[in-house]
Design a protein that fits this description.
Length: 337
Protein backbone atom coordinates (compact mmCIF):
# COMPACT_ATOMS: atom_id res chain seq x y z
CA UNK A 1 0.00 0.00 0.00
CA UNK A 2 1.33 3.46 -0.88
CA UNK A 3 0.21 6.20 1.48
CA UNK A 4 -0.54 9.66 0.15
CA UNK A 5 -1.74 12.99 1.60
CA UNK A 6 1.43 13.28 3.61
CA UNK A 7 0.33 16.61 4.96
CA UNK A 8 -1.63 14.72 7.57
CA UNK A 9 1.64 14.07 9.35
CA UNK A 10 2.07 17.72 10.27
CA UNK A 11 0.24 17.35 13.59
CA UNK A 12 2.86 16.04 16.00
CA UNK A 13 1.18 17.10 19.22
CA UNK A 14 0.14 13.57 20.00
CA UNK A 15 0.52 12.36 23.55
CA UNK A 16 2.26 9.08 22.94
CA UNK A 17 3.85 8.24 26.25
CA UNK A 18 1.67 5.14 26.63
CA UNK A 19 2.92 2.43 24.28
CA UNK A 20 0.17 0.20 22.98
CA UNK A 21 -0.68 -2.77 20.81
CA UNK A 22 -3.15 -2.66 17.96
CA UNK A 23 -2.46 -6.11 16.59
CA UNK A 24 -4.35 -9.24 17.57
CA UNK A 25 -2.90 -11.12 20.54
CA UNK A 26 -2.06 -14.69 19.58
CA UNK A 27 -3.25 -16.80 22.50
CA UNK A 28 -0.47 -18.67 24.29
CA UNK A 29 2.34 -17.01 22.32
CA UNK A 30 4.56 -14.56 24.17
CA UNK A 31 8.07 -13.22 23.80
CA UNK A 32 10.71 -13.14 26.51
CA UNK A 33 9.21 -9.85 27.70
CA UNK A 34 5.72 -11.38 27.92
CA UNK A 35 4.71 -9.45 24.82
CA UNK A 36 2.44 -11.07 22.23
CA UNK A 37 4.07 -12.91 19.33
CA UNK A 38 2.07 -12.50 16.14
CA UNK A 39 1.64 -14.57 13.02
CA UNK A 40 3.38 -13.15 9.97
CA UNK A 41 0.17 -12.37 8.07
CA UNK A 42 -1.28 -10.46 11.02
CA UNK A 43 1.49 -7.89 11.08
CA UNK A 44 3.48 -8.07 7.87
CA UNK A 45 3.34 -8.35 4.12
CA UNK A 46 5.95 -9.32 1.54
CA UNK A 47 7.98 -6.39 0.26
CA UNK A 48 9.95 -7.98 -2.60
CA UNK A 49 11.60 -11.23 -3.59
CA UNK A 50 8.77 -13.39 -4.97
CA UNK A 51 9.46 -17.03 -4.00
CA UNK A 52 12.48 -16.01 -1.92
CA UNK A 53 10.13 -15.39 1.00
CA UNK A 54 8.65 -18.54 2.56
CA UNK A 55 6.34 -18.65 5.59
CA UNK A 56 6.88 -21.59 7.97
CA UNK A 57 5.71 -23.02 11.30
CA UNK A 58 1.99 -22.31 11.31
CA UNK A 59 2.56 -18.86 9.88
CA UNK A 60 4.74 -17.63 12.75
CA UNK A 61 8.17 -18.02 11.15
CA UNK A 62 9.43 -16.67 7.83
CA UNK A 63 12.54 -17.39 5.76
CA UNK A 64 14.17 -14.74 3.57
CA UNK A 65 16.69 -15.85 0.96
CA UNK A 66 19.22 -14.25 -1.38
CA UNK A 67 20.33 -15.78 -4.68
CA UNK A 68 21.82 -14.43 -7.91
CA UNK A 69 18.38 -13.30 -9.06
CA UNK A 70 17.15 -11.32 -6.05
CA UNK A 71 17.08 -10.83 -2.32
CA UNK A 72 13.84 -10.61 -0.35
CA UNK A 73 12.11 -8.70 2.40
CA UNK A 74 8.94 -7.94 4.32
CA UNK A 75 7.34 -4.85 5.88
CA UNK A 76 4.77 -4.19 8.60
CA UNK A 77 1.17 -3.45 7.64
CA UNK A 78 1.04 -0.46 9.99
CA UNK A 79 3.08 2.61 10.80
CA UNK A 80 4.24 3.08 14.37
CA UNK A 81 5.23 6.09 16.44
CA UNK A 82 7.22 4.64 19.36
CA UNK A 83 7.12 1.11 20.69
CA UNK A 84 8.99 -2.15 21.20
CA UNK A 85 9.83 -4.18 18.09
CA UNK A 86 11.55 -7.53 18.11
CA UNK A 87 12.39 -10.70 16.17
CA UNK A 88 14.42 -13.83 16.76
CA UNK A 89 16.80 -14.21 13.82
CA UNK A 90 19.07 -17.03 12.64
CA UNK A 91 21.56 -15.84 10.04
CA UNK A 92 22.89 -17.71 6.99
CA UNK A 93 25.79 -20.05 7.68
CA UNK A 94 29.12 -20.80 5.99
CA UNK A 95 30.75 -18.13 3.80
CA UNK A 96 28.48 -15.05 3.86
CA UNK A 97 30.81 -12.18 2.95
CA UNK A 98 28.86 -9.33 1.34
CA UNK A 99 25.48 -10.69 2.48
CA UNK A 100 23.56 -8.09 4.49
CA UNK A 101 20.57 -8.93 6.67
CA UNK A 102 18.73 -5.87 7.99
CA UNK A 103 16.04 -5.51 10.67
CA UNK A 104 15.07 -1.87 10.81
CA UNK A 105 12.46 0.89 10.96
CA UNK A 106 12.09 3.55 8.28
CA UNK A 107 9.69 6.00 6.63
CA UNK A 108 11.86 6.57 3.56
CA UNK A 109 9.04 5.58 1.21
CA UNK A 110 7.05 8.62 2.39
CA UNK A 111 9.80 11.10 3.25
CA UNK A 112 12.46 10.79 0.57
CA UNK A 113 14.41 13.87 1.71
CA UNK A 114 13.75 13.93 5.45
CA UNK A 115 13.21 10.32 6.47
CA UNK A 116 13.85 8.70 9.85
CA UNK A 117 15.49 5.32 10.41
CA UNK A 118 16.57 2.94 13.20
CA UNK A 119 18.77 0.04 12.05
CA UNK A 120 20.13 -3.36 12.94
CA UNK A 121 22.42 -4.55 10.12
CA UNK A 122 24.38 -7.82 9.98
CA UNK A 123 27.41 -7.34 7.73
CA UNK A 124 28.32 -10.83 6.53
CA UNK A 125 31.11 -13.13 7.61
CA UNK A 126 34.35 -14.70 6.42
CA UNK A 127 35.09 -18.16 7.77
CA UNK A 128 37.00 -18.01 11.02
CA UNK A 129 36.11 -14.37 11.71
CA UNK A 130 33.60 -12.99 14.19
CA UNK A 131 30.25 -11.86 12.89
CA UNK A 132 29.70 -8.10 12.95
CA UNK A 133 26.54 -6.20 13.72
CA UNK A 134 25.92 -2.51 13.06
CA UNK A 135 23.37 -0.18 14.65
CA UNK A 136 22.45 3.20 13.23
CA UNK A 137 20.00 6.07 13.71
CA UNK A 138 18.86 8.77 11.30
CA UNK A 139 16.38 11.55 11.92
CA UNK A 140 14.79 14.04 9.54
CA UNK A 141 17.00 13.04 6.63
CA UNK A 142 20.27 13.56 8.54
CA UNK A 143 22.13 11.09 6.34
CA UNK A 144 25.19 13.35 6.29
CA UNK A 145 25.62 12.48 9.98
CA UNK A 146 25.76 8.72 10.21
CA UNK A 147 25.47 7.50 13.78
CA UNK A 148 26.85 4.01 13.23
CA UNK A 149 28.26 1.75 15.90
CA UNK A 150 29.66 -1.72 15.12
CA UNK A 151 30.31 -4.71 17.31
CA UNK A 152 31.79 -8.19 16.97
CA UNK A 153 29.13 -10.63 18.12
CA UNK A 154 30.14 -12.83 21.06
CA UNK A 155 28.31 -15.84 19.60
CA UNK A 156 27.75 -17.40 16.19
CA UNK A 157 24.37 -16.01 15.01
CA UNK A 158 24.10 -18.73 12.37
CA UNK A 159 24.12 -21.56 14.95
CA UNK A 160 20.79 -20.69 16.55
CA UNK A 161 18.12 -18.01 16.89
CA UNK A 162 18.92 -14.87 18.89
CA UNK A 163 16.54 -12.05 19.75
CA UNK A 164 17.15 -8.53 18.42
CA UNK A 165 14.93 -5.74 19.71
CA UNK A 166 14.41 -1.99 19.33
CA UNK A 167 12.82 0.22 22.00
CA UNK A 168 11.86 3.64 20.63
CA UNK A 169 10.32 6.38 22.78
CA UNK A 170 10.18 10.15 22.51
CA UNK A 171 13.29 10.44 24.68
CA UNK A 172 15.56 7.51 23.81
CA UNK A 173 16.27 4.50 21.59
CA UNK A 174 17.70 1.26 23.00
CA UNK A 175 19.06 -1.66 20.98
CA UNK A 176 18.89 -5.10 22.62
CA UNK A 177 20.49 -8.46 21.85
CA UNK A 178 18.89 -11.36 23.73
CA UNK A 179 17.18 -8.83 26.03
CA UNK A 180 20.50 -7.23 27.01
CA UNK A 181 20.95 -3.58 25.91
CA UNK A 182 23.99 -2.92 23.76
CA UNK A 183 23.37 0.74 22.89
CA UNK A 184 21.31 3.68 24.11
CA UNK A 185 20.70 6.82 22.04
CA UNK A 186 19.32 9.64 24.17
CA UNK A 187 17.50 12.54 22.62
CA UNK A 188 19.39 15.76 23.27
CA UNK A 189 18.52 19.34 22.50
CA UNK A 190 21.66 19.64 20.38
CA UNK A 191 20.46 16.86 18.06
CA UNK A 192 17.50 18.98 16.99
CA UNK A 193 15.47 17.12 14.38
CA UNK A 194 18.10 14.39 14.01
CA UNK A 195 16.22 12.21 16.51
CA UNK A 196 13.59 10.00 14.77
CA UNK A 197 10.19 11.61 15.35
CA UNK A 198 7.85 10.55 12.53
CA UNK A 199 5.88 7.27 12.24
CA UNK A 200 7.84 4.42 10.69
CA UNK A 201 7.24 0.95 9.29
CA UNK A 202 9.26 -2.08 10.38
CA UNK A 203 11.30 -3.86 7.70
CA UNK A 204 13.39 -7.01 7.34
CA UNK A 205 15.52 -7.66 4.25
CA UNK A 206 18.39 -9.74 2.90
CA UNK A 207 20.42 -8.28 0.02
CA UNK A 208 23.78 -8.11 -1.74
CA UNK A 209 26.00 -5.53 -0.07
CA UNK A 210 29.21 -6.58 -1.81
CA UNK A 211 30.31 -3.02 -2.50
CA UNK A 212 30.72 -2.09 1.16
CA UNK A 213 29.61 -4.68 3.73
CA UNK A 214 32.69 -6.87 4.33
CA UNK A 215 35.95 -4.99 4.89
CA UNK A 216 34.70 -2.04 2.84
CA UNK A 217 33.86 -4.21 -0.18
CA UNK A 218 37.06 -6.28 -0.20
CA UNK A 219 35.08 -9.54 0.04
CA UNK A 220 32.03 -9.99 -2.18
CA UNK A 221 29.07 -12.34 -2.25
CA UNK A 222 30.02 -15.76 -3.67
CA UNK A 223 26.84 -17.21 -5.14
CA UNK A 224 28.17 -20.75 -5.26
CA UNK A 225 27.10 -20.85 -1.60
CA UNK A 226 23.60 -19.54 -2.33
CA UNK A 227 20.82 -19.47 -1.52
CA UNK A 228 21.63 -17.57 1.65
CA UNK A 229 18.72 -17.98 4.08
CA UNK A 230 17.88 -15.75 7.05
CA UNK A 231 15.20 -17.15 9.38
CA UNK A 232 12.86 -14.94 11.44
CA UNK A 233 10.53 -16.00 14.26
CA UNK A 234 9.01 -14.62 17.52
CA UNK A 235 7.79 -11.50 15.72
CA UNK A 236 6.75 -8.69 18.08
CA UNK A 237 5.07 -5.45 17.00
CA UNK A 238 4.14 -3.69 20.23
CA UNK A 239 3.68 0.03 19.80
CA UNK A 240 1.60 3.05 18.91
CA UNK A 241 0.00 2.32 15.56
CA UNK A 242 -0.98 5.47 13.67
CA UNK A 243 -3.08 6.17 10.61
CA UNK A 244 -1.52 8.75 8.25
CA UNK A 245 -4.99 9.69 7.02
CA UNK A 246 -6.14 10.72 10.50
CA UNK A 247 -5.10 13.62 12.71
CA UNK A 248 -4.79 11.61 15.90
CA UNK A 249 -3.13 8.37 16.88
CA UNK A 250 -4.87 5.18 18.01
CA UNK A 251 -2.89 5.07 21.25
CA UNK A 252 -5.32 4.18 23.99
CA UNK A 253 -4.71 2.18 27.15
CA UNK A 254 -4.33 -1.42 25.98
CA UNK A 255 -3.03 -4.37 28.06
CA UNK A 256 0.62 -5.41 28.04
CA UNK A 257 2.08 -1.88 27.95
CA UNK A 258 3.67 -2.55 31.36
CA UNK A 259 5.73 -5.32 29.74
CA UNK A 260 7.69 -2.80 27.69
CA UNK A 261 10.98 -1.74 29.29
CA UNK A 262 11.02 1.97 30.12
CA UNK A 263 14.76 2.30 30.53
CA UNK A 264 17.92 0.45 31.49
CA UNK A 265 18.15 -0.97 34.99
CA UNK A 266 21.46 -0.65 36.88
CA UNK A 267 22.23 -4.35 36.43
CA UNK A 268 21.44 -4.22 32.70
CA UNK A 269 23.58 -1.09 32.35
CA UNK A 270 26.55 -2.94 33.83
CA UNK A 271 26.03 -5.70 31.27
CA UNK A 272 25.73 -3.17 28.47
CA UNK A 273 28.96 -1.42 29.44
CA UNK A 274 30.74 -4.78 29.59
CA UNK A 275 29.58 -5.69 26.07
CA UNK A 276 30.59 -2.32 24.70
CA UNK A 277 34.06 -2.51 26.24
CA UNK A 278 34.69 -6.03 24.96
CA UNK A 279 32.94 -6.07 21.60
CA UNK A 280 32.40 -2.56 20.14
CA UNK A 281 34.84 -1.98 17.29
CA UNK A 282 33.63 1.34 15.85
CA UNK A 283 31.74 4.43 16.98
CA UNK A 284 30.98 7.42 14.78
CA UNK A 285 31.93 9.69 17.68
CA UNK A 286 35.62 8.83 17.20
CA UNK A 287 35.74 8.83 13.39
CA UNK A 288 38.10 11.69 12.60
CA UNK A 289 38.04 10.81 8.91
CA UNK A 290 34.36 11.69 8.67
CA UNK A 291 34.09 14.45 11.26
CA UNK A 292 36.59 17.19 12.07
CA UNK A 293 34.86 17.45 15.43
CA UNK A 294 32.47 14.91 16.97
CA UNK A 295 28.71 15.45 16.55
CA UNK A 296 27.29 17.54 19.38
CA UNK A 297 25.62 14.68 21.28
CA UNK A 298 28.83 12.66 21.57
CA UNK A 299 30.48 12.25 24.96
CA UNK A 300 34.14 11.46 24.34
CA UNK A 301 35.77 8.88 26.58
CA UNK A 302 39.58 8.92 26.21
CA UNK A 303 39.90 5.29 27.30
CA UNK A 304 37.29 4.22 24.76
CA UNK A 305 38.99 6.29 22.07
CA UNK A 306 42.31 4.58 22.79
CA UNK A 307 40.75 1.13 22.66
CA UNK A 308 39.02 1.82 19.32
CA UNK A 309 42.13 3.34 17.76
CA UNK A 310 43.42 -0.08 16.66
CA UNK A 311 40.35 -0.61 14.47
CA UNK A 312 40.43 1.07 11.07
CA UNK A 313 37.13 2.93 10.59
CA UNK A 314 35.33 2.17 7.35
CA UNK A 315 33.40 5.06 5.87
CA UNK A 316 30.13 3.78 4.41
CA UNK A 317 29.66 5.78 1.23
CA UNK A 318 30.74 9.08 2.85
CA UNK A 319 27.45 9.27 4.69
CA UNK A 320 25.24 8.30 1.76
CA UNK A 321 22.47 5.76 2.22
CA UNK A 322 22.92 2.13 1.18
CA UNK A 323 20.19 2.05 -1.44
CA UNK A 324 20.15 -1.73 -1.67
CA UNK A 325 18.37 -1.94 1.68
CA UNK A 326 15.64 0.57 0.98
CA UNK A 327 13.00 -1.42 -0.85
CA UNK A 328 9.88 0.49 0.07
CA UNK A 329 6.23 -0.13 -0.72
CA UNK A 330 6.24 1.50 -4.12
CA UNK A 331 9.36 -0.46 -5.15
CA UNK A 332 8.34 -3.85 -3.84
CA UNK A 333 8.22 -5.44 -7.26
CA UNK A 334 11.75 -4.47 -8.21
CA UNK A 335 14.28 -7.31 -8.27
CA UNK A 336 17.42 -6.70 -6.28
CA UNK A 337 20.73 -6.81 -8.08
Amino acid sequence: MVYSHLGCFCIWGWSLFVLTVTLVNVSGSTSNNNLPIIAFDEGYTQLFGDDNLIIHRDGKSVHLSLNERTGSGFVSHDLYLHGYFSASIKLPSDYTAGVVVAFYMSNGDMFEKNHDEIDFEFLGNIRGKEWRIQTNVYGNGSTNVGREERYNLWFDPSDDFHQYSILWTDSHIIFYVDNVPIREVKRTESMGGDFPSKPMSLYATIWDGSDWATNGGKYRVNYKYSPYVAKFSDLVLHGCSVDPMEQFSKCDNIPNSKSIPTGITPSKRIKMEGIRKKHMTYSYCYDKIRYKSPPSECVINPQEAERLRKFDPVTFGNGRRHHGKRHHRNKASQAQK
